[in-house]
């Protein structure tokens, strides 16, 4: 009969035990490295931080332009709604007046009613006066018919205006919801940029805001030229020609737009702002041309279609210059290969080379 005794267990000898423990610890360490819990991600380099911040700023600017466009639509819807509400109030007043007039006719008819007209004539002490009053009553009956028609017309008008106002109110609520979404997107992008910038020294942040952001954007954008020219302001205001550029503004209005842009130098970038204390990029160009008596649309992707499209070789002071494939940034050309633009948060309105970012097109407002 076979034995069923448990095989004898032999404890590990000293060296063997130490070897097994070492191998076990090595296995744990290897597993830790493989699953990522023991291998810290190296911090990004300064250039990586700058590139990522530049990307955040571009994405924020795209969202800002969408926000600006939706806000413009919301403002129009609100204006139309206000007009409709005023019209509804006026129509309601007219309706109430018509109802009151109709009520007066009905009250008079009630007071005069009860007897047939022939009997009232026989009982009248003055038949001539009765006939006169009867003639007036006939005319009053006609007026009553007119009043009734007016009440019906005013009622239809009030209902139509109120229906249109309700549709505009629904549209406004949709636009306001879209505004809130775009605002959250912009704020999230800018918050991400701020957190990354906190990793840089004060000197590195200053360098970035003084031109490094556009250079990083051009590098990441893929088609910009190197930014080698100074971003310092060129000088004071202009008349018909831009300082140091030698180019003449094609019109007096263009010269005034350029003068306004020079007067805005140093003012802060504020997303969604059109002045006078701060600007975003399209807000600055809109305000500059508004000072010259020209009304531009609010966003970069609508401003590029304002006026006449021109080639890069045709640029003259006052022209709008656009950047990136999505046409998400705009500046005002001032001559000599330079523009004035509102770059991004932390960087004030300033003069910069047109070659600093990927060029997307240009337009000359009328």
Automatic annotation (TrEMBL):
Leader peptide range in chain numbering: none
Record domain NlpC/P60: where: 251-366
Alphabetical UniProt keywords: Coiled coil, Hydrolase, Protease, Thiol protease
Coiled-coil positions: 67-101, 155-203
Molecular functions per Gene Ontology: cysteine-type peptidase activity
Gene Ontology biological-process entries: proteolysis
Region annotation (Disordered) ranges: 212-250
Protein name: Cell wall-associated NlpC family hydrolase
Species for this entry: Streptomyces netropsis
Family per record: Belongs to the peptidase C40 family.
Pfam families: NLPC_P60
């Amino acid at each position: 009969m076979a034995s069923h005794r448990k095989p004898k267990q032999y404890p590990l000898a000293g060296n063997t035990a130490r070897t097994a423990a070492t191998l076990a610890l090595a296995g744990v360490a290897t597993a830790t490295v493989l699953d990522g819990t023991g291998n810290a991600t190296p911090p990004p380099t300064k250039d990586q931080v700058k590139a990522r911040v530049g990307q955040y700023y571009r994405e924020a600017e795209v969202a800002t332009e969408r926000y600006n466009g939706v806000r413009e639509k919301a403002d129009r819807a609100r204006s139309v709604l206000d007009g409709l509400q005023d019209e509804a109030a006026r129509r309601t007043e007219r309706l109430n007046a018509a109802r009151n007039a109709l009520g007066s006719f009905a009250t008079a008819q009630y007071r005069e009613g009860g007897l047939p007209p022939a009997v009232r004539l026989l009982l009248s002490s003055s038949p001539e006066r009765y006939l006169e009053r009867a003639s007036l009553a006939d005319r009053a009956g006609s007026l009553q018919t007119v009043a009734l028609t007016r009440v019906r017309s005013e009622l239809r008008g009030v209902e139509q205006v109120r229906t249109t106002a309700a549709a505009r109110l629904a549209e406004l609520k949709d636009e306001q919801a879209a505004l809130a979404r775009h605002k959250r997107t912009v704020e999230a992008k800018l918050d991400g940029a701020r957190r990354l910038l906190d990793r840089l020294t004060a000197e590195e942040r200053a360098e970035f805001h003084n031109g490094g952001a556009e250079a990083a954007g051009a590098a990441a954008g893929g088609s910009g030229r190197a930014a080698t020219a100074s971003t310092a302001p060129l000088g004071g205001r202009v008349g018909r020609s831009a300082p140091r550029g030698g180019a003449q503004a094609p019109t007096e209005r263009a010269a005034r737009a350029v003068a306004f842009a020079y007067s805005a130098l140093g003012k802060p970038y504020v997303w969604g702002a059109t002045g006078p204390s701060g600007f975003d990029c399209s807000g600055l160009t809109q305000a500059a041309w508004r000072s010259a008596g020209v009304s531009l649309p609010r966003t970069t992707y609508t401003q590029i279609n304002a006026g006449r499209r021109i080639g890069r070789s045709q640029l003259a002071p006052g022209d709008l210059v656009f950047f990136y494939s999505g046409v998400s940034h705009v500046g005002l050309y001032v001559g000599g290969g330079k523009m004035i633009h509102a770059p991004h948060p932390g960087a004030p309105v300033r003069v910069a080379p047109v070659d600093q970012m990927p060029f997307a097109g240009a337009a000359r407002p009328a």
